[in-house]
Amino acid sequence: MGRRAGGAAHPRRGVSLSVAIRRRQGDFTLDVAFDAPNGVTVLFGRSGAGKSTVVSAVAGLLRPDAGRIAVNGRRLFDTADATDVPVHRRRAGVVFQEPRLFPHLTVRDNLLYGRRAGRARGDGPLGEVTELLGIGGLLERRTAGLSGGEASRVAIGRALLSEPDFLLMDEPLAALDAARRAEILPYLERLRDGARMPILYVSHNLAEVARLATHLVVLEDGRVARAGEPETLLSDPELVRLFGLREAGAVLRARVEAHAEDGVSELSISGGTLFLPRIDAAPGTPLRVRILAQDVMLATERPRGISALNVLPVTVVALRYGGGPGVTAQLAAGDDRLLARVTRRSAAALGLSPGTRCYAVLKSVAVAPADIGGPGGDAAG
Amino acid sequence: MLPPGSETWPELWPGIREAVILSLRVALVATLASLPFGIATAWLLARRRFPGRAVLNGLVHLPLILPPVVTGYVLLVLFGRQGPLGAALDQLFGISLAFRWTGAALAAAIMAFPLMVRAIRLAFEAVDPRLEAAAATLGASGPRVFATVTLPLVAPGIVAGAILAFAKAMGEFGATITFVSNIPGETRTIPSAIYAFLQAPGGERAALALVLVSVVIALAALFASEWVGARVARRIRGAA
Asked: What residues form the membrane-spanning segments (chain B) (predicted)?
């Protein structure tokens, strides 16, 4: 997006947002430290975990008690020498939970507000951004007449056109219904693959994490519980309690291999082949697939006479017993990890323990485009 | 208009015209000169927490509660030729307020100030501070946020406050007559003129004429405020 993002001057790797802050608010103490490299770093946590506080602190709207915030080596906040760059000089593109469009301006004037405010220079890529977000037809409209999805996209475009050094997105889809989310997610995926800057994206929605995250930071009670690759964290049975039993599930990188004549597409993963209803992507396309733990059944023998198309040979890596009747099993399928939820009774009946070889029956698989440049995206270099 | 052929008409007409023109001038000057102070005071009261805020709030509202004669008397004491502020103004700037139309404008402005501040303050309180925060993240400095986001959103309140103040200034009587007396051509505004006409035998017709003029001006101001307010609101909220 734009000169900054699209130009060759900024190498794709090595640019990052680094955050290490502490802040007390009554009984709640936020104490976090993490790095957000280029790409989308999702800050995940339940409500009250401190996600929005982090975003406000990085944006400069809220002052931490102590710590350091830097982007690409430029310090925005540092209690060591009392650095505190004011909000309007931080060059942060912020997308809030609500669109916060200016009601007295047209869509065009909202989009160009950053330029009028003197920050964005030159003739920024208005056309490029409106095309990316599909808002070219709205330019002369008043903001009051926009739908929720349109207003969200204008808010994202406005942040991009202010020529930020990094983006902060505080649950930008939280106020939208499922249909509007589905409308905007593809734009965010394009943004992730095109914008060469750190994007800190707050979410408590695992479907968004699975689709967008290139890096994941899990917050719990004001602290970083874990940080790392989303594939690793999402398939970690220890974190299932934070993700929620219904939502927990592994994310795998896959590649489209072929489309059969009966309408089934073949995807290769490291542990075998997946068969899915026709996917609209050319052979060779890298994809992300998400498999919910509760959609995986286990069998000690290869099941026969079953309608499920996807049965993978797996090895049990670890079992996590919670307080309830369920067990979360981490499974190895080739180089990938899957999660499965089974009952204690089933686990005992099947004699599951680390090292057990068995078969995973996948009841449902969700597919999303993979981020280009990730481990599965060698096609894009 | 008075019925033609009235014998008092030719003598009364100049006095009526004088009072109307003077009233318009006094009210206009009072409104425009106090508007910047009104906006600043409304902003302070709506957005800032500072020691003495309650005192400022009370001071602004005082003319609304005090008998107008008391306000006029306080002005006379402060701004009269021998008053501390009046003497200073006279010496430093050569401005004399006592028994001048400028004094009438000051009295009208003071009396209208609470109404003006109230309307504008409500508008400030209605502005979503999250919009201002969003503007700051887009690179706008504090003054720029104020000029490009806050002020446009407060505009309907400013228009409403100004028109309210103008109408109040047109009708101010007690403080004006106490402070600057009732001098034809200098401080005899419409209310003072009506009062004077009613004191003299045969003045009822002229008083009635001024009453009608007052009603017309008040209605015109009301319609103007509705029209401007609707226009501004449409511009700000956006025609859906």
From this structure: 20-46, 58-79, 99-124, 145-167, 206-228
